TrEMBL record:
This is O-antigen ligase. It is found in: Membrane. It comes from Leptospira interrogans serovar Icterohaemorrhagiae str. Verdun HP. Residues 5-143 form the O-antigen ligase-related domain. One of its GO terms (cellular component) is membrane.
Length: 212
């Protein structure tokens, strides 16, 4: 959700304010239309079984990973502190976080239940997971990738029609604050495909401008 809002805002600023390719009236109508659509969809889903699966965790009626993120992050921090530059290594996160939780629950017994009932496969945060598994160098490279990609997005000379396909890439790095998208093949494959297409089209556009 936050990633979508961030990428949509970026697109509106770049295409509407900076490049002035989106008429103000269309921006307002588009925004109102989206919020109205989401409102009616939300109301409709709230009366269905599928909608209740989404709303029940929000009101504490059933266990949900959103509530467990604090415990997952809390048991991930010791891994980062012990291995700041090299990380624990690929494939070792699950084992090492188990050790971290045992040590922490011995000191804070009231947390034992929460550590046992929350998942331990990944850190539910791309940044924390990279720090824990690969260390500070990989974390800095990830930040560099996100920063450079965002810079290219807001300065792109691609046409309006082509640009719209790629602004969602910026939201990937915001959504990564609450989930490990680099651990989900179905997400990260699409990310790299879009990233490659964007950079290739940008290079072609740059070469065309230089020739002209």
């Amino acid at each position: 959700m936050l990633g979508g809002l961030f990428s949509s805002t970026t697109a509106l600023i770049v295409l509407g304010v900076i490049r002035k390719e989106l008429p103000f009236t269309k921006i307002i109508l588009f925004t109102i239309g989206i919020f109205t659509f989401l409102l009616f969809v939300g109301i409709g889903l709230s009366f269905t079984q599928a909608g209740q699966k989404i709303t029940d965790p929000l009101f504490g009626k059933e266990k949900h990973t959103d509530a467990g993120r604090a415990f997952i992050w809390d048991s991930t921090f010791p891994l980062i502190e012990k291995n700041p530059f090299t990380g624990v290594g690929p494939g070792n996160y699950n084992r090492e976080i188990g050790k971290s939780r045992i040590e922490h629950s011995e000191e804070y017994r009231e947390l034992y239940y929460f550590y046992e009932t929350t998942q331990r496969g990944h850190a539910h945060n791309d940044y924390f997971h990279l720090l824990a598994v690969f260390g500070i160098p990989s974390f800095l490279l990830f930040l560099l990738l996100g920063t450079e990609l965002y810079r290219r997005l807001i300065t792109t000379k691609l046409s309006y029609e082509h640009s719209l396909y790629f602004f969602g890439l910026s939201g990937f790095f915001i959504s990564g604050l609450f989930q490990c998208y680099f651990q989900d093949d179905e997400v990260v494959i699409l990310f790299w495909i879009l990233c490659g297409l964007f950079l290739r089209l940008s290079k072609n556009q740059s070469d065309f401008v230089e020739v002209a």
